[in-house]
Amino acid sequence: MASLADATPPIALGALDGRYRGAVAPLVDHLSEPALNRERVRVEVEWLIFLTTHQVVPGVRTLTDDEQQRLRQVVEDFDADAIAELAQIERETQHDVKAVEYFLKRRLTAIAPGEEDRGLAELIHFCCTSEDINNLSYALMVKGAVSEVWLPRATELVESVATMASDLREVPLLAHTHGQPATPTTMGKELAVLAHRLGRQLRRIERAEYLGKLNGATGTYGAHLAAVPDADWPSLSREFVESLGLQWNPLTTQIESHDWQAELYADLARFNRILHNLCTDVWTYISLGYFAQVRGQGTVGSSTMPHKVNPIRFENAEANLEVSNALFDVLSSTLVNSRLQRDLTDSSMQRNIGVAFGHSLLAIDNAARGLAGLDAVPSAMAADLDANWEVLGEPVQSAMRALAAQGVAGMENPYERLKELTRGRRITGDDLREFIAGLGLPDDVAKRLAELTPQTYIGVAPELVDYLD
To answer: Could you say which of 3, 178, 303, 348 is catalytic?
Structure first.
């Protein structure tokens, strides 16, 4: 049997790099292994430029504007050839960050080839432990993935749910609490609830903090002070970290504590869970006939039953949200722990960040496609309302309670009387109106209740949609 492992080009082991590649490809620029190396190169370049422009090390010249531009261009031009070169160096060093250092030393030799400039290369990775570079790189990667890829896609999805809520704000819907017919609402209001919940999580994610540190092997600036004792290293560290668009963490061990990551991933997981709730609700509405899936798109719904259009987009989203959350949860719970001043469990764990984001992004894509393929069926919703007049037992007994509280005679035991009329059996509009007529209600109340129907008993549900604004 031919070995698939030997196929060319290589076959992806996971679905994200296989059949779903198109939906998640934008994350490759931020959360892939080459993206990590590119950010490592960026941080090393910026640290070198920072050290020389601030003249931190006495007697070292400042890099010229042209040299700085050419160094930064190494980051911008980071391509397949650079990836291959780094991989080759790493095979020799058996250390990924050290490979980046050697990679940049080669570039600096070409940019500043003079004999008098050879010492500049020693300022690449100067006083840094690998985690100084890695923590800043991961912060930049995750920040870019959130702000440039995940958040725009998630925002578009929430906006589409909000638009559906607005469009369907007046469409009456039989609610189901505990799976049983309950007080009517509108489809728009129910979608607005989900849009509101998702929107709250987006606002939390938008406010996320991305922390970074550069303080040496155990967070003490020991090597820094040994090399340049007169420099204000904490202030320089803060200025450098903030120059990258990150928030400085002043107190760490060898590693930045990753608490910000745990906080962010918890918010992302909560967004995922609410989106999962949306998918299961919409799936149920489809099964009840409240939404029709757009037909005639050439898709095969079932391999044997031609009539079927399966809600596969929502089912696919559910599965991917569950995978994403499993990863976000384990990232959140493990990254905040490190034995004493350092262990390497976080190194392996963080390499799964892209997979967690990928499954979430894929779910967002599927949910968006699924929602775009729906048409509301108000007639189906109306039919269920017409078949459940017993839900009007609530307003009748509530009106009787109010009258009893006001001292109106004959309003005793309203809940029990409506329970006897409605529980365990279906009633018609005529049954309810006959019951109302025999209660001895004041004329205005009797008229108001007799005119009520399941379709009109929706309270202020349409107006509640406006709170999305």
So the answer is: 178
